[in-house]
Each structure stands twice: as C-alpha cells, then as structure tokens.
Specification:
single chain, 173 residues, mainly alpha, 0% strand
C-alpha cells in the first residue's frame, strides 16, 4: 500500500504513538505560548460582547409585548444579575483603590469587561498592591459570573420555551 503523503515516510503508519505525541506537544505549545493564550482570550472576549449585544436585542424585542413579558423579565433579570455579580468581583479586586474600582465598574456596566480583561491577560498585567487576585483569575471569575447568572439560566429558559412550544403543537393549539 502506497503512502498518501510520501514526505512523512510512513512514520504514522509504522509508529502509531507518534501522532498522539505530536498532538500533545502542539496542545502544550498552544497552552503555553503567548499567542495561543491571546487567541483563546480574544475569541472569548468577542463572543462575550456578542452575547451581551444579542441579549439586549432580544430583551428590546420582548419589551412591551404581553405574550413575551415573562421572557422579558427573566432575560432582564439574568443580565442584571450577571452585571451585579461582575460588579462584586470588581469591588473585591479594587476595594483598596476607589478610583480604579470606579473605572472598572464603569467598564462592567458598559458590557466591555471581557475585552478589557482579555487585554489585561494578553499584556501579562502583573498583580498590583491593591489587587485581590491576578488578571487571569479576575477574567475567570467574571466568566463564571456570566455562566452562572446568564448562560445556564438562559439555556434552561430556552429549553422551557421550546418544551412549551412542542407541548402546544402536540395539543394542536
């Protein structure tokens, strides 16, 4: 049988462990190289901002309609809950320096916390004297706030809505 890629010299066919070793090495390089971290963090920041924009668009679309009032309140409370939890992280991080706390809280309220956090991690921002934790930990904490107060409840809400639609279809409504 001829090798499809002769430049490899049949290494992957003769030594099955080589491919897994190379994949592990590539994964380690992606995890430790600054550009690998930058790619992951920037992608996450972009998706986070996109999520906030879509949440606001959906909330505005549900506003004022009687049949979607429950979804409107639910989505609004999830977004507000996420912001409040992120403000709590900001307060914890900067409580010893009020001006830094005010700036960081303004960033959270505008929905730009993810890009600012990503930039701090990509720059390798060092922990300052007044900080409670480093930039990576702060980014992870704010992501956890988003997941716990927005993503997971939003998924449950959407599943409930889908369940209601499917049940209404079965009843022929």
């Amino acid at each position: 049988m001829e090798d499809a890629e002769p430049e490899r010299g049949g290494v992957f066919e003769r030594y099955d462990w080589v491919e897994s070793m190379l994949l592990e090495m590539a994964q380690e390089v992606m995890n430790t190289a600054p550009w690998g971290l930058m790619k992951k963090v920037c992608t996450g920041a972009f998706l986070s901002v996109l999520d906030i924009v879509t949440d606001v668009v959906v909330i505005v679309g549900y506003m004022g309609k009687e049949e979607t009032r429950g979804y409107w309140y639910s989505l609004l409370m999830m977004l507000v809950g996420s912001i409040v939890l992120q403000l709590l992280v900001s307060f914890t991080q900067h409580r010893k320096k009020p001006w830094a706390m005010a700036r960081d809280m303004l960033v959270v309220i505008t929905g730009l916390n993810a890009p600012f956090g990503a930039a701090a991690v990509c720059r390798g921002q060092k922990m300052e004297e007044h900080h409670a934790f480093d930039a990576k930990t702060e980014l992870v904490a704010t992501k956890m706030c988003e997941m716990l107060s927005e993503s997971l409840p939003g998924c449950l809400l959407q599943c409930g809505g889908l369940w209601g639609v499917l049940a209404a279809d079965e009843e022929g409504v």
